């Protein structure tokens, strides 16, 4: 067993992390020497159960894990490798190894985490996507957890802006979670990376996600919470961010919205209030970051075929608006508004919402 295999093997043993690895290396000098030790040498350092777990480790577990990783096209990065993320080295208890689909680059040292509720409102989802796209357009990597809701929209925003994004999983790669994001994981891997510290066959158990959250903040210079209820898991990420010396940003939400109670509480506690992308960049002294500039996919002045269509489009914003309000604002008849709305929908410039409301796409 070489040093690489020894590190992967240690990661396969529950409750062996970088702290215990450091203790072992002070005594054994290199990882491979740990597995040559006898149980009586390991027990005084780790206790009876862990000492015996290492001494009796079955190498078939290692072979199976490596075979599964190879089959999935993964690269395994150890904490001693040069391409191990620099920001992760700075946090308490960094992972011993990372399973990686895609590639982590130097550009990812400029990264912002975006997290929030799995059951976010349209407000939280749209802002996650918008901020991710705007930050990506400035050359910032977007880090999130690939969960339903805000995480998914954050990754999609970065992808739409042709930026880089990193997804951190709370399971092994044999259990992509949620399953419906398997295609998203492949998309992310083409212009960023999907990573996990968990061995290949680790299931998405609830206890894994706080560990996942510490990596989201650890990979980021700061974390933006777009929407979170009082007990949201996104608040765990903000706690880790503070412990790791990262900035915490939050979007203000409606005071009567249950889904915004967590973010509003963060703002009371001193999180940085965010109303635009520059609020984040200025706080991190990245206001001049413009390594690439993404042109809008659509020129709003040229999309409309006719004057009335363009006129109606001006009254449709990122906030939901009802047909009756559009009739009143545009001074057009109901039939004219309905006809123009259909044209704008065909051009994918607006989208319909429940209750006959519409907003820009």
Describe the protein in words.
The chain is 44% helix and 13% strand. The chain has 361 residues and is of the alpha/beta class. The chain folds into three domains: 3-57, DNA polymerase, domain 1; 106-283, Rossmann fold, CATH 3.40.50; 307-360, Orthogonal Bundle (Arc Repressor Mutant, subunit A), CATH 1.10.10. β11 and β12 form a beta hairpin. The longest helix has 16 residues, at 122-137. The protein starts with a helix and ends with a strand.
Overall geometry comes to: elongated
Compute the number of helices.
17
- What is the average of the pLDDT values? 88
- Which percent band covers the strand fraction? 5-15%
Termini, distance in Å?
Answer: 54 Å
Largest sheet: 9 strands, mixed
Q: Return the structural class.
A: alpha/beta
Report helical residue fraction.
Answer: 40-55%
CATH architecture of the largest domain: 3-Layer(aba) Sandwich
What features would you highlight for this structure?
12 strands; DNA polymerase, domain 1; elongated; single chain; 361 residues; alpha/beta; Arc Repressor Mutant, subunit A
